Amino acid sequence: MIVRRYGVIVAFVVLCILVASLCQYQVVRGEWSENSFITPDNLMLILYQISINGILAVGMTFVIITGGIDLSVGSVLAFAGMLAASFATRSTTVTPWSGIYVLAVPLVAALLAGSACGWLNGWIIAHFNLQPFIVTLGMLLAARGFTMTLTGANPISALSPAFRWFGTGKVLGEVPIPVVIFVLVFAASWVLLNKTVFGRYVYAVGGNEKSARTSGIKTYRVKIYVYALAGLLAGIAGIILSAKTGSGQTNAGASYELDAIAAAAIGGTSLAGGVGTLSGTLFGALIMGVMNNGLDILGVESFYQSIIKGALIVTAVIIDPSRKRAA
Amino acid sequence: MLPPLLSMRRIKKSFAGVHALVDGALELERGQIHALCGGNGAGKSTLLNILMGFIQPDDGEIFIDGKPRRFADAKEALDAGIAIVQQELSAVPFLTVAENIFLGSEPRWHGFVDFKRLNRQADELLVSLGFDIDATAVMDSLSVASQQLVEIAKALSHRNADILILDEPTSAIGEKDVARLFKVLRDLAAAGKGVVYVTHRLAEVFVIADAYTVFKDGACVASGRTADINRERLIEMMIGGALEGEFIKENTPGETPLLEVRGLSRAPWFTDVNFTLHEGEVLGIYGLVGSGRTELLDTIYGLYGWDAGGVTMAGHAFKGGDVDEVIDSGIAYVTEDRKRSGLVPTASVGHNLSLTVLRRLQSFGMIHFDEERAHIERAIRMMQIKTSSVDEVVSNLSGGNQQKVVIGRCVLTDPRVLLLDEPTRGVDVGAKKEIYRFISGFAKAGGGVLMVSSELEEVLAMSDRILVFRRGKPVAAIGHEEATQKSLMMAAL
Fold first, then answer.
1. pTM passes above 0.90
2. How far is B240 from chain A (nearest CA, A)?
3. Predicted confidence (pLDDT) per residue in B85-144, tens digit
4. What is the span of the domain harbouring residue A16?
5. Which of A72, A289, A294, B147 lies in the 20 to 30 Å Cα band around B451?
6. Are residues B151 and B188 in the same domain?
7. Domain around B351
8. Is A207 in contact with B358 (Cβ distance < 8 A)?
9. Distance CA B1, CA A312 (A)
C-alpha cells in the first residue's frame, strides 16, 4: 500500500516539473513575461478546478474499495444541483415553489436528494445482489430524467447571491469556497476511512465479502452506506456547480463519473476492491488538474487534452509498481 | 539400465535475496509413483514451478529420459510431457466439463469448435478413467470433489503426458473418490508414466507411493523407497527431529452443557441433528465430503436459517439466521476454506486478526488503536504466528500461518465455543501440531470445540466423542475409547 501511494506522489511531482519546464520554455521563447504555471493564483486555480471532481472522487474511492462502482454520480450531481437551483431562484415562474427562498432549503434539498439516490443504489445492489455497474447505470439514466422533469428541460438561472457564494465566494481573501469545502470533505472522509470501524469494514467487504460476513460484519449495511455517501458527496458537488455557474443545467455533470473513476484509479485504487487510499485519489485528481491546467496554459486544443488524459490514465496504471504482473 | 524418466539436480532459486531452493533434487523413474513431502516453505512448490516452466532456476540441471532440458515457459513443459493438477482449482465455472478439459486445445472443424467431437472425446476420457461425471455438465454445478477429478482428467488428456504432478489432490475429495483416484494412478504407472504426488497426508504416502523425497529448508534431505521407512521416520525427516507425538490432547470433558442442538434440519443438507456439546469437550464430526457437515456448521453459526429444530447456547435459544446473536453469545467459526471465507487477502495480518473483535474496540465509531494493537499481539503470541510484521499482507504468509490467523481472529473474541471446519487442511506438520496444542489448551480451559474433519487420524486422536455423518444424517455417536478407524469408516460409508 505504501509503494502504491508514493508512486502517485512521484508521478505528480515529475508532472509538475515537466509542466513548469514547458511553461518556462515558452517564457524563454519570449511569449510571456513570467512562468504562468508556478504562480500562487494559478496553483489556487488548479485546486479550484479540481474541487468538484475531487469531492466526487472521494465518494467513488469508498465505493470502488468495496469492489463496486458508481456510474451515476454525474447525473445525481445534476439532479441535486438543479433541485438546489430551483429553491434558490428569485424568479417565480420556474417551479411551483420558486420565489420562496431560505438559504438552508436548497442546501438541505440537494443533500437529501443526493443521499436518497445513493441510498437507493446501495439498497438495490445489496438487497437483490446485483452488479453495481448495471444498477448505477440505471440510476445514471433515471437521475438525468429526474433532472429534466423538474423544469421540463429548461435551465434555471438568476440564482440568489447568498446561494452563489458557495461557488464563487472566497475566504481569507484568496481561498475559494469550493476549495474549502473540498478540503473539509477530504479531511472528514479520511478520518472516516482510516480511523473508524466503518472504514475498516469498507476494506474488508472489498477484500473478501464472505470473510467479512463470517467475521460478523453487516456487509449489507456497509454497501448501502458507501453508495449513500457517494450520493451525498454528489449532492455537495451539485450545490457547488450550480452556485459556481449561477444556473441549474439539465446537462450538468455529464461524464463527471468517468473523471472521478480516473482520479481514483490513477491514485492506486484497485477496481477489484480491497485496496486504495484517499491520499492516492487526491494526487490522482491533482495530476489530472495539473495536466489540464498545463495544457491550457500552453494553448493546446481540448481534443488533444482528451487524448493525453486517456494515455495518462493507462500509463499511470501500467507503471503502478504494486500491480500484479501476469505470470 | 534406463535413465530415470525425470532427474532434477542441484537446483537453486532465490527471490529477491530469499533462498527458496539451495539444493533441489528429484529422481522419478518410469512406472513410479513418487511422493514429495516437506513443510510449507520447504521448497516443493518452487521446484515444481521450475519443472512446469513457470519460473527459471538460477542453477542446476534437469534431465528428461537422460536428455538435458530447459523449459522457457509452460508450453514447452507441456510439450515435453509434463502436466500438473494444481491444488487450487482453476476451472472455468461457467463452461462445461468437456470445454474445460480441452480448454486451449479444442478439436476444430474448419476453424469452428467441433462440439460433437469435443464431447465424445471428453466422455471417452472420463469413462476410461472410471469417473462418473457427465461431460456436458456445467463445471459450477459439480461438487468440489468432482471438479478436482475433472482437473485430473484434463491433465491426463494431453496424450503425451508422461509426467503427471498432483499437488494435494485429495484435500477436497472423499474416501470413495480417493480410492478411485489411486486406481487411476496405479494404472498410469503400469502404463509406464511417472507420477509426482505432493501431499501433507502422510498416511496416503504409504498407500500409494513407491518412493519418496523429503524437502526441508530448500533442499532435498532424503529420498528412497517407501517400503523401507515408516510414517514416524518420514515425519522425523520432514521436521528434522524426533517426533514426540503429533497430536496433543490434554483435556477432559466436563458435565455442563454449552451448546445444544435439537432436531435441526435444513433441506436438502441435513435432517434431525441432535447433540450436546459440553464444557471442556472436543466433539468431532466425521463424514465423507458432501455429508452436510459444513452446512451444519454454517447453519449453527447463523449464516443461514433452519427449517426445523433449534439451537441453544448456555440456555439462550437462537432465533437463527443471525450471525450477530451467535457471535455475541460466544461462538466463533473457522471456516473450511480460508481463501474463500476466512481471510481478507488484501488486508494485513493485523487487520485480519482484529476484524471480528473490532466492534468492541471503539467509541463513537472511532477505533481504539492501542487496544487493537494489544489484541493483535496477543493473538500472534497465542497462535505463534510467524510473520515479518503486523502490517505484512496476509496472502504472503504460508498456509499454516494463514490458518493460524483465521483461528487467531476467532479467538480474540474470547469465545466459549469454537466451530472448526477442517482446521488443518493445507497446513504443514509443524503448524498442525501448534494448532492441535491450541485446540487442546482451549478445551482444557473449559471451552467447547465442535470439529469437523475428514482426516481419520485427526478426528480419532483429538475428539472426546465422534458424531458420524452420512448424507446429512448423524448415524452414529462413538466415544473416544471405542473409536477405531474401522468403526468410523464403516459408519460413514
1. no
2. 34
3. 877 677 888 899 999 988 877 888 888 888 898 999 899 888 887 778 888 999 888 877
4. 2-319
5. B147
6. yes
7. 347-405
8. no
9. 63
